[in-house]
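Section 5: illustrative case.
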């Protein structure tokens, strides 16, 4: 179906009428859940919008937001949009110099921070940013020059009493083609680029993506969803608009390390996630079997094996699945709260083994594809259909085609207006026929299902002339319970090598179960550790082409991190940084090449 242009404001307000829970959203602070009613949310949005109006915010002005997920995050979002202003979200993990660049490039007038700890990243640099007139702390501040969220709400209450029609007047002037947000892509190379997305880019994309959601809220008593990916990322933000539109409150967790406790207490029906969380959970499930013995252990791994080999187009015999479900799967589903309908996975490639396992235990797990520049969803599996390894089919009104060099091109109403103040970069990304060049390599099968291979820039060429897509190999490696991170290397060399960070927690457990003492000093040089990782690499190599096999690897003790600039806030590897920083380690892999 075709969708009429609309605004994010309309999308959210329509959902207010559908929401039967009475709760707009909730946030966990200091271990306690704080729920916000629909009425309180609407009132806060109005009061904050009018408070910002008093501070000089007008249509088209930029307001930056540097904070963790929370109800207040969404209040700020809706208040800014109600004024026709533009929200500029910033990751809490973004380094200070990048934040400074974003504030200066966007010309942000108001800057929100969650608290003094988050503000500390930019405090030394903020004086140099001329555009920022006011800084507002959401949770209060010890800095005398910062205004508080509550202060601005009070300003709005007074303004509302003085001009009771002003809020609706401003809100009614917002048009579908108005700029709604500037999202600065973290990027694996160069300075961040400000992606310009309109109300209709995002709202229209949310409506089209909602068609792929495998649940109807009315089918569940008090439906809830959990949110943990940063709202600064379009994947989670668009999902939150969908939740608001269909009347399901998101519960913003405090820290991902305690998400299993949150599953148990919230009992969510749905989760938008990146593959890494599922990989860790599935690894934990598999490792748990090591604690068992005898027939119990045999049955456990029989069920695990059955799930790992699940094929949606050729499912196992019903009697087998029922036995596995009774003995194992039903208990695994309880780890997710017992009501989980499905996972929507994006942001990176999902290992086919993980997809099979999750679907095999009776929870829908669908992989979608998109980019910040596409608001973000381009493809996803239609309801009732699934093809392991595929990112689905194009959503309504979106066209996908593959260029001669294998690059995925997209066209549709969700494509960005361009990069802010970067016309040359915009022209590079969107050709004269309106096709957006994604920078990803992939192919469409005969039925129109999309398979994404890797980033175009990530492909490298061995000295033998063979091209290698490193991401699928890396995904297979981290599917092991003993490997936390992996970066495949080999450009202009004869064979593929890898930098591998072991999962030290599981490695320690293995040492304990085999009654060996874990080597606290230089564990990467330990013979047993190296042999264990070699065994995992061999398993992956068995499934790879000859030229893709990882022939040598180097173990690293510390994980790649956002803080050290080795991965982006969306957890993508900055290969140029890693290649430079670990040049010595990579050189050692190829020391005997000739």
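Designed sequence:
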């Amino acid at each position: 179906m075709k969708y009429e242009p609309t605004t994010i404001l309309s999308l959210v307000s329509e959902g207010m009428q559908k929401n039967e829970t009475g709760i707009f959203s909730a946030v966990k602070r200091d271990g306690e859940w704080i729920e916000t009613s629909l009425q309180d949310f609407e009132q806060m949005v109005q009061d904050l919008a009018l408070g910002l109006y008093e501070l000089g915010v007008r249509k088209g002005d930029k307001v930056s937001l540097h904070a963790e997920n929370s109800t207040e995050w969404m209040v700020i979002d809706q208040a800014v949009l109600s004024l026709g202003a533009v929200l500029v979200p910033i990751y809490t993990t973004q380094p200070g110099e990048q934040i400074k660049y974003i504030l200066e490039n966007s010309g942000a007038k108001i800057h929100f921070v969650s608290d003094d700890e988050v503000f500390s990243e930019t405090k030394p640099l903020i004086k140099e940013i001329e555009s920022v007139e006011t800084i507002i702390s959401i949770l209060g501040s010890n800095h005398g020059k910062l205004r508080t969220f509550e202060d601005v709400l009070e300003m709005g209450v007074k303004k509302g009493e003085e001009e009771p029609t002003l809020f609706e007047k401003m809100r009614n002037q917002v048009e579908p083609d108005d700029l709604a947000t500037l999202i600065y892509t973290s990027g694996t190379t160069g300075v961040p680029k400000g992606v310009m997305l309109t109300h209709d880019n995002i709202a229209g994309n949310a409506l089209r993506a909602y068609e792929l959601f495998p649940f109807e809220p009315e089918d569940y008593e008090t439906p809830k969803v959990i949110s943990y990916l940063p709202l600064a990322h379009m994947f989670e933000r668009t999902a939150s608009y969908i939740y608001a539109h269909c009347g399901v409150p998101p519960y913003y967790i405090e820290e991902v390390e305690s998400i299993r406790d949150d599953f148990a207490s919230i009992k969510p029906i749905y989760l938008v996630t990146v593959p890494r969380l599922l990989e860790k959970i599935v690894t934990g499930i598999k490792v748990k079997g090591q604690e068992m013995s005898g027939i119990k252990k045999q049955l456990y791994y029989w069920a695990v094996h059955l799930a790992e080999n699940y094929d949606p187009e050729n499912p196992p015999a019903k009697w087998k699945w029922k036995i596995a479900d009774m003995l194992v799967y039903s208990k695994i589903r309880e780890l997710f709260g017992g009501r989980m309908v499905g996972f929507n996975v994006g942001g990176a490639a999902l290992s086919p083994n993980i997809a099979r396992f999750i679907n095999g235990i009776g929870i829908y797990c669908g992989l979608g594809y998109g980019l910040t520049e596409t608001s973000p969803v381009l493809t996803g599996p239609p309801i009732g259909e699934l093809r392991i390894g595929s990112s689905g089919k194009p959503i309504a009104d979106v066209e996908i085609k593959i260029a001669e060099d294998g690059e995925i091109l997209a066209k549709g109403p969700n494509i960005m207006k361009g990069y802010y103040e970067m016309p040359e970069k915009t022209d590079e990304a969107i050709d004269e026929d309106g096709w957006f060049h994604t920078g990803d390599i992939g192919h469409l099968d005969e039925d129109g299902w999309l398979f994404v291979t890797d980033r175009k820039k990530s492909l490298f060429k061995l000295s033998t002339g063979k091209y290698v897509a490193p991401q699928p190999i890396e995904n297979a490696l981290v599917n092991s319970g003993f490997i936390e991170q992996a970066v495949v290397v080999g450009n202009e060399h004869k064979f593929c090598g890898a930098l591998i960070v072991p999962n030290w927690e599981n490695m320690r457990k293995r040492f304990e179960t085999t009654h060996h003492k874990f080597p606290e000093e230089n564990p990467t040089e330990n013979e047993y550790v190296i042999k264990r990782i070699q065994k995992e690499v061999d398993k992956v190599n068995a499934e790879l082409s000859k030229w893709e096999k990882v022939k040598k690897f180097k173990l690293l003790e510390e994980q790649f991190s956002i803080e050290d600039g080795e991965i982006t806030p969306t957890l993508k590897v900055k290969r140029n940084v890693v290649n430079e920083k670990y040049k010595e380690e990579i050189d050692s892999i190829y020391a005997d090449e000739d």
